[in-house]
Design a protein that fits this description.
alpha+beta; five-stranded mixed β-sheet; Globin-like; 289 residues; Ubiquitin-like (UB roll)
Length: 289
């Protein structure tokens, strides 16, 4: 998978390569293209909309009945014994909203961001802090495809399989980014202020392996890709790959964005190489506060 390089403006102390995964919409677009989900495919898939919608409510109910009956998924969801009706109603609401967008063959950037967020929720970063192993998410997608096969003609089922797999992979990207926050022995916190705060509304606990600021930035921007278009700007470049020259897109921080470590501007420390210690607070500070 392509990695994206990042440099911090022209400040040598803050320059240096970072690696970021593709944004959710870019990831989604790549997988959709591989699966052949183009405008014509979407037009064909829309032929199934009425039949799928007519069974949607039934499938939502049966999905949660299956999850609650199977011991491992019931345990992961905290549903051993009586299922909380309020929680179940909320989950059915979100499942129904997702199913509606899926039946409409949504391929937009906002939907890709939603799928990335859903992956983070399954990794334990949702309101309920429940961890759902990825294999059960994959099987849930298989359950949906099996339900679709009840009404979708066999000649179109492959398109739906490709579309659902593309969704699953974007969701897995969010899951992996969230799990990565928990890996490492050095625990620090990061917060975003000003116009960056909606992309990271709460202070985030991050574990680091090496303890460099660069490592923290990579993890946080992978977890919260909504920060990327706010804080970074694209820089086209050409890289040498073996005997070939390959075009790529790098990124650098926009002017006047600042990182603070315990209130100190890292430009006056060691830039992206600044070492972090357990308990440190890193602040992402946009211009204009």
């Amino acid at each position: 998978m392509q990695k994206v390089r990042v440099a911090w403006g022209e400040d040598a102390r803050l320059a240096g390569a970072l690696t970021l995964p593709p944004l959710p919409e870019a990831r989604f677009g790549r997988y959709l293209a591989f699966a052949g989900i183009d405008d014509e495919a979407r037009r064909v898939m829309h032929l199934d909309s009425e039949a799928l919608l007519s069974r949607g409510a039934e499938w939502v109910r049966s999905a949660y009945e299956a999850l609650s009956r199977f011991p491992e998924t019931a345990r992961a969801l905290g549903w051993e014994g009586r299922i909380p009706e309020d929680e179940l109603r909320i989950r059915r609401t979100f499942f129904s909203a997702w199913l509606g967008r899926t039946i409409g063959v949504d391929t937009g950037a906002e939907f890709a961001e939603y799928l990335h967020h859903a992956g983070r929720v399954h990794a334990g970063y949702g309101p309920e802090r429940k961890f759902v192993p990825p294999e059960w998410v994959a099987l849930a997608f298989a359950y949906v495809l099996r339900a679709f096969s009840q009404v979708v003609p066999s000649e179109r089922l492959g398109l739906w399989a490709g579309y659902l797999t593309a969704q699953e992979e974007v969701m897995r990207g969010g899951f992996d980014a969230a799990v990565e926050l928990t890996r490492g022995g050095i625990g620090v916190r990061v917060e975003a202020l000003g116009l960056a705060r909606p992309a990271l509304p709460e202070a985030l606990e991050v574990r680091l392996v090496h303890g460099h600021l660069r490592e923290l930035v990579e993890k946080v921007f992978a977890f919260a890709p909504a920060l990327v278009p706010l804080a970074l700007e694209a820089v086209p470049s050409v890289d040498e790959v073996g005997l070939w020259m390959e075009a790529s897109v790098g990124w650098r921080f926009r002017p006047r964005w600042t990182l603070l470590v315990n209130g100190r501007d890292v430009r006056y420390l060691d830039g992206l190489s600044t070492r972090l210690a357990a308990g440190d607070l890193v602040t992402i500070l946009p211009p204009g506060r």
